[in-house]
Amino acid sequence: MKKLIIINGPNLNLLGKRETNIYGNLTFMEFFDTVVKKYPNVALEHFQSNIEGELIDKIQEVGFSYDGIILNAAAYTHTSIGIGDAIKAITTPVVEVHISNTFSREEFRHQSYISPNAKGVILGFGLQSYELAIESFISS
Ligand code: DQA
C-alpha cells in the first residue's frame, strides 16, 4: 500500500471560510474525508501548519520513508528557500499543488521555491488538484 501525505501550509486551515471565491466552500477536512474513502488502497495522511519550521520538520520526518508528499506550501511557496532546500535534501518525491492557478494571479505568486525540485506541479483545479496528485502517485 502506498504511503502518501498531504502537507498544507499557512492559512489552508481556513479553507471553507477564506476567500471562498478563490478557494471554495469546503473545509479541508470535509474534502480529506471523501478522498480517504475514495482511495481505500492508499495510506493517506494529512498535516497542516502555519509555521515554516514545522513544515520543514515534517518534510524531513517523512521524506526518507514515504512514497510521496503532496505539498501545498501556500504563501511559503513564493518565499521559502528553507522549504525548497528541504525538498532537495529528501528522497521522497514531492508533487507541488495549488488550489488556484497562481499564474493567473498577482506576479509575486508566479515565483516558486518548490517547483525546481518537485516531481511535478498541479495547479488551478480547485481541491481536485490534490486528487490529481494522488492519482499521479498511484499510477507511477
Ligand atoms: C495557494 C496559492 C498561494 O499563492 C496562496 O498564498 C495560498 C494558496 C493555492 O493553493 O492556490 O495560500 O497555494
UniProtKB/TrEMBL annotation:
GO molecular function, one term: 3-dehydroquinate dehydratase activity
UniProt entry keywords in alphabetical sequence: Amino-acid biosynthesis, Aromatic amino acid biosynthesis, Lyase
UniProt cross-references to HAMAP family, sorted A to Z: AroQ
Transmembrane among keywords: no
Pfam families in the cross-refs: DHquinase_II (PF01220)
CDD domains per UniProt: DHQase_II
Reaction catalysis annotation: 3-dehydroquinate = 3-dehydroshikimate + H2O
Summary of the function given for this chain in its UniProt record: Catalyzes a trans-dehydration via an enolate intermediate.
PROSITE patterns tied to this protein: DEHYDROQUINASE_II
Family per similarity comment: Belongs to the type-II 3-dehydroquinase family.
Gene: aroQ
Entry keyword annotation includes Amino-acid biosynthesis: yes
Active-site residues (renumbered): 23 (proton acceptor), 98 (proton donor)
Pathway this chain belongs to: Metabolic intermediate biosynthesis; chorismate biosynthesis; chorismate from D-erythrose 4-phosphate and phosphoenolpyruvate: step 3/7
NCBIfam families for the chain: aroQ (TIGR01088), PRK05395.1-2 (NF003805), PRK05395.1-3 (NF003806), PRK05395.1-4 (NF003807)
Protein name, as recorded: 3-dehydroquinate dehydratase
Binding site for substrate: 72, 78, 85, 99-100, 109
